[in-house]
Write a structure and sequence with these properties.
Layout lengths: L1 E6 L4 E7 L5 E2 L1 H16 L5 E6 L7 E2 L1 H6 L4 H19 L4 E5 L2 E3 L1 H8 L2 E5 L3 E3 L11 H4 L5 H10 L2 E3 H7 L4 E3 L4 H13 L3 H13 L5 H18 L1 H14 L1
Parallel strand pairs: 2-4, 3-5, 4-6, 6-8, 7-9, 8-11
Antiparallel strand pairs: 1-2, 9-10
Family: Belongs to the enoyl-CoA hydratase/isomerase family.
Protein name: Enoyl-CoA hydratase family protein
Organism: Umezawaea endophytica
Length: about 250
């Protein structure tokens, strides 16, 4: 369980999230993911990264129970810094990152997927930001990389989800495949990229990031400032408690 990495002979590093039961990632898990992505990019033998997950869904976001157990603000600070580190590591990874998404992709999962280079999803995949229902803000930066601006706003305010098929329609998802074919499809695309001269692909990744109109790191940290504010006002604590109480029922 946790974050694991494996490397294939054809230059593909596969990084897997595995935090049962729903891949709600604890703060240390986000930092571990950031380390795994940096290590992969630093390895000259890695030509491309596939980011995938085990279990019922790709990612349910941060571990709300961990935050709620904390008697001060240290847990929310750790979670926010961990998310920023992991999302940034996807974006800054020296090689292309392909996200292979199944089931639910929520909250922090959107941060990972929105910063990936390519997204492949299974037909059962759904994407959304329940942040406003949890008393937090964040990852609108990344959702806006997957859907048009006004759709992003509607999804954000309502906390509704969108299907992989709809994201494919809007260009946020490259390919939608049956669940059983997801890993194979991700590996096939990764293999195609891995065959290219990695010196060229690494420079291509750097060049594309360099012309990106959106400063993703700055924008996400700006969003997080409002999460801190909501935590200080008590609104976040109220929302998290209501969510956990509802789950208990």
């Amino acid at each position: 369980m946790g974050i694991s990495s494996s490397h294939t002979e054809d230059g593909i590093t596969v990084i897997t999230l595995d935090f049962p039961p729903v891949n709600a990632v604890p703060s240390k898990g986000w930092f571990a993911l950031a380390d795994a992505l940096r290590d992969a990019g630093d390895d000259p033998g890695t030509h491309v990264v596939v980011l995938r997950a085990e279990g019922r869904g790709f990612c349910a976001g941060v571990d709300i129970k961990e935050i709620q157990r904390s008697e001060d603000h240290q847990a929310i600070l750790a979670a926010n810094r961990g998310c920023a580190a992991a999302f940034g590591a996807v974006y800054d990874c020296a090689v292309p990152v392909i996200a292979a998404v199944h089931g639910f992709c929520l909250g922090g999962g959107i941060g990972l997927v929105g910063n990936a280079d390519v997204v492949i999803a299974s037909t059962d995949a759904t994407f959304g930001l329940p942040e406003v229902d949890r008393g937090a803000l964040g990852a609108a930066t990344h959702l806006s990389r997957l859907v048009p601006q006004h759709l992003m706003r509607a999804l954000y305010y309502t906390a509704r989800t969108i299907t992989a098929a709809d994201l494919h329609h809007h260009g946020g998802v490259y390919q939608v495949v049956p669940r059983a074919d997801l890993d194979g499809a991700a590996h096939a695309l990764a293999g195609e990229i891995a065959k290219k001269d990695t010196r060229v692909i690494r420079r291509a990744k750097e060049a594309i990031n360099g012309i990106d109109a959106q400063p993703v790191r700055h924008n996400y940290r700006f969003e997080q400032g409002f999460t801190y504010e909501l935590d200080l006002t008590g609104a976040a604590d109220d929302a998290r408690r209501a969510f956990l109480d509802g789950k208990a029922r």
